[in-house]
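User: Could you check the structure of this?
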Amino acid sequence: MGFFKVKYSLVCLLAGVLSLTSLSSAAFADQEDFSDRLRTCKAIDSMVARTQCYDVVMDEYDLGTLKRRGGNEAYSWKIDTKKRNSSGSLDVTLTLPSTDLFITRESAQIRRYLVLSCTQGQPSAYISWGVPIGRTEGNAVADNLVNSKLGTEPLKAERWLASTDKTASFIPTPTEFYNRILKAGGTYVVTIKPEAYYDTFSATFDVTGLADKFQPFKESCHLP
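Assistant: Sure, the predicted structure tokens are below.
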């Protein structure tokens, strides 16, 4: 999935500077943890899981100081815009990290991401799991049984299509989903039974705050 924007050169540069910087003991502890987390990510074989492992680290640390971020700053909506053509039309992506972590088979911690995308004026919504949710052999389109619950709404069971690389699940009715989030807010919990590789697992997202960043997305997709 193309929304990951891990700046590998910056990560490498920061890792290289660590040994040259004199810091307080507290800052040094954060710095050592940052280095250890990068080394763990680097050892992951799966490119998607490795990328999302780096994303977790970069979400949790202020890259200017290498100190851990406080509060819920690491789990808030992030907006990315890209000019589509000379008319100034924008493609807009809103990304939200999960509040919980998933431990991969390589013992790395990764987050799942809830992604709202408006590309070429077309809305979509999906969850990037960071690990395969279906067998990767062949090109057959797979789907998975997904149970989800938003705020105080009743539990909802649906079948979601998987991405071609089998690491993401597409929410069937994205526009309806946007409206539900804007209205309900709160916690969004998703449970999926993958076709292969992993047992049933879940992801939790704090979807509050979407309204504060939704206007550019709404205009890009011409939503009412």
